[in-house]
Amino acid sequence: MSAAMPVQAADDAVRTDSYRVLARLFAAPPDATLLHALAQAPRAGEDALGAAWNALCEFAASAGASAPARLNAEYNELFCGVGEPRVMRYGSWYLSGSLMDQPLARLRDDLARLGFARDAEVHEPEDHFAALLEVLAMLVAAGHPEQRDFFQRHLAPWYAQLCRRLEGDTSEFYRLAARLAHSFLDAEVEMLAP
User: Fold this and answer.
1) CATH code, 19
2) Is residue 106 a part of any domain in this protein?
3) Is the N or the C terminus of the chain less surrounded, counting Cβ atoms within 10 Å?
């Protein structure tokens, strides 16, 4: 019989999985596999975070066979529009009002210091919301002591603005995804407070 997982390790495993799910939700439109996984996922409690998770899973459960095509169109309309998209997913935009600005340079310095290298196949800037969520998943999974500083420097100052923009949008899926992200990251702010 194996020993029980320590509470901190169990909490970090849940946090890692949460960051990964959120990264996937914002990295690309949901495909049928993701929607099926959400529909089949266990439901959570009824606190704000649990209610946000449950609502997203219920949406996926009732989405129907045409949902991937519809959500692909919504994703592109929201995030990839010609000219300026309706909703920006880049930290520099929220922190300085433009893309490829000083916040991105500081992020690149911190990523290099932490040992992260840019993937040549990735064309998005490193301050993309999904990329930052994925980095945090890796830092939490490794128990890296810099996860708090990284979160506070590169995500905490602007995630709420992005989430509020999406929560006010017409796309039900992305309203629900933003509500989940907002609830989870608000909890992280409290947990990672100095």
Assistant:
1) 1.10.3480.10
2) yes
3) N
